[in-house]
Amino acid sequence: MSSKNTSFIFLFILVLFVFIDGLFTVNQIQQVVVTRLGEPVRVIKEPGLHFKIPMLEKVIFFDNRLMSIELQALEVTLGDKKRIVVDAFGRYKITDPLKFYQTVYNESGVVVRLNPVVLGSLSSVLGGLGLPSLLSDTRISAMNKIRDEVNKAAKGFGIDVVDVRIKKTDLPPQNSEAICKRMMSERERMAREARAKGVEEAQIIKSNADKDNAIAVSEANTKVQVLISEGELEANKIYVEAFSQDKEFFEFFQSLEAYRSSFAENNTTFVLSQKSAFFRAMGGK
Questions:
Q1: Would you state the CATH architecture of domain 67-170?
Q2: pLDDT tens digits for 81-97?
Q3: Nearest to 65 by CA among 27, 113, 110, 8
């Protein structure tokens, strides 16, 4: 291969490389700022195949879609002097890529520049609301007001803020701890009251039960005594009716009962006269 052919091939490859380096594609979700030696020269928003000057121009791509930004948590004093910690987020869209490149340069720059604006607006607007209003539908109009204020300031960054929302609200750590302690004390007080009430009711139930038991036992004993008395009365009546038919037998029976009671113990000893009425039934035997 001659040196002429070699030079031609080398030149062809160089031209091809330069040509390829000058081509770039912009899709539907992108927009481009073309810079020349670090200075922006034009903006491209139309999708398709485009050309830049190789080696001299550089292409910087920006997203054309809605993007989110997580904001720093902020402790805010509300209108009713209550303090809360607010976690918020915003959504924005790059509307002027050139201004965006010149002011914030990239998405990290958006966080740095937009964060204090949003937090300042949050503090200002929420400072005029009480906690009940923040938990009601009034919050929607307040967030729209914050969005409009932030969007007005964000125009200078080449972006359009379409939404600002509160993701979470919480109490400051010291307030949360104090509330937890207060809740624990309240629950302990309620538990003590419940236990005391339970002991009191138990005593009342036990007292009523003892009372009912005593009344029932007393009534039962009364009925028993009445029945015993009625039985003895009936028995005596039967004895009287039976023994009245034979007086001598009645006296004899009574004597036997007296003997049985007197000689109940085996070692019982009596020293009596044989003429004593006690031995009358034995006939002196």
A1: 2-Layer Sandwich (3.30)
A2: 888 888 888 999 999 99
A3: 27
